[in-house]
Design a protein that fits this description.
single chain; mainly beta; 13-stranded antiparallel sheet; 3 helices; 37% strand; globular
């Protein structure tokens, strides 16, 4: 991973530093609450996928049923997908940071998640993905997310110019004793530039998903399979009642196969709600992600 002096990336990193500073007091309170992770959990052991290398410091540890869902900001610390690092071995020599912050930078690869018209980033953009864990317990966690994209520049084989867009968001994850879990988030895209603050309260996007184990490791002998159903929404605020637009909703069923802590495959399908005619056959996604 190469750190370059890109103007947009510098502004993004500064914004993330400001968020960390504001939430520092929250973390001081969190640090006083020491959780014993060795005690028996309320989840059945067949759903426990936390048997990963605890000595690794390059990525957060995957625990329990915490899986990534398409187009959802995760409420737990996890490395993002869709980042192409210039030097994959660069993180191995980096000193370990605090366990409540996760920061990743790299070239944006848009083929690991659903892409909709108007989504920020893509080929030729540099992406910054930051997470700040506000609290984390055995069943519930909450994360402040800050994502940003900016043109990578010709020196990085990217676009020479284009918009720099920040995407702040708040995510929550809650797990029940039977393996069922709920994820939810709310966020928005903010285009940086002259007059950027006037667009802060005009639109938001949000989502919620329910997941449940479908096949446990004792049956499959290779990871766990989950099914999930999500709902994604977008809402645009407007002061003129005559231009009111109803919130746009999409239903998203899917499957997630967690083979190990660093290897998973997922498939999903978007179904626009309230749209006349059959669903668009292009609104499906299949992703395989692994690290070695």
């Amino acid at each position: 991973m190469t750190y370059s002096s890109l103007p947009g990336a510098v502004r993004t990193t500064a914004a993330l530093a400001l968020v960390v500073a504001v939430c520092w007091q929250v973390q001081q309170v969190r640090a006083q609450d020491v959780i014993d992770w060795q005690k028996p959990t309320g989840l059945p052991r067949v759903f426990d996928l936390s048997a990963v290398d605890t000595n690794a410091t390059s990525s957060p540890i995957v625990r329990g049923n915490r899986i990534r869902i398409f187009r959802m900001m995760p409420g737990f610390l996890t490395d993002p997908v869709g980042l192409d690092w210039d030097d994959p071995n660069a993180t191995d020599s980096a000193p370990p940071g605090p366990d409540w912050v996760n920061l990743s930078l790299g070239n944006d690869n848009p083929f690991f998640d659903f892409r909709r018209p108007g989504d920020p980033g893509g080929i030729g953009y540099y992406r910054v993905n930051g997470q700040l864990q506000l609290f984390d317990s055995r069943t519930t966690c909450c994360t402040l997310n800050l994502q940003a994209v900016t043109p990578a520049g010709r020196d990085q084989d990217g676009l020479a110019d284009g918009p720099t867009i920040l995407t702040p968001g708040l995510s929550v994850y809650h797990e029940l004793d039977d393996g069922t879990a709920i994820q939810g988030f709310v966020g928005k895209h903010v285009r940086m530039g002259a007059g950027w603050s006037t667009d802060m309260a005009r639109s938001v996007h949000y989502g919620m998903a329910v997941q449940r184990p479908l096949i446990d490791p004792n049956t499959l002998k290779l990871g766990s399979v989950y099914w999930y159903v999500g709902a994604l929404g977008r809402y645009r605020f407007d002061s003129d009642p005559a231009t009111y637009r109803a919130p746009a909703w999409e239903l998203m069923p899917g499957l997630h196969w967690q083979l190990s802590g660093n290897w998973w495959m997922a498939a999903g399908f978007l179904v626009p709600m309230g749209q006349a005619g059959p669903p668009d056959p292009r609104l499906w996604q299949w992703t395989c992600s692994f690290r070695f």
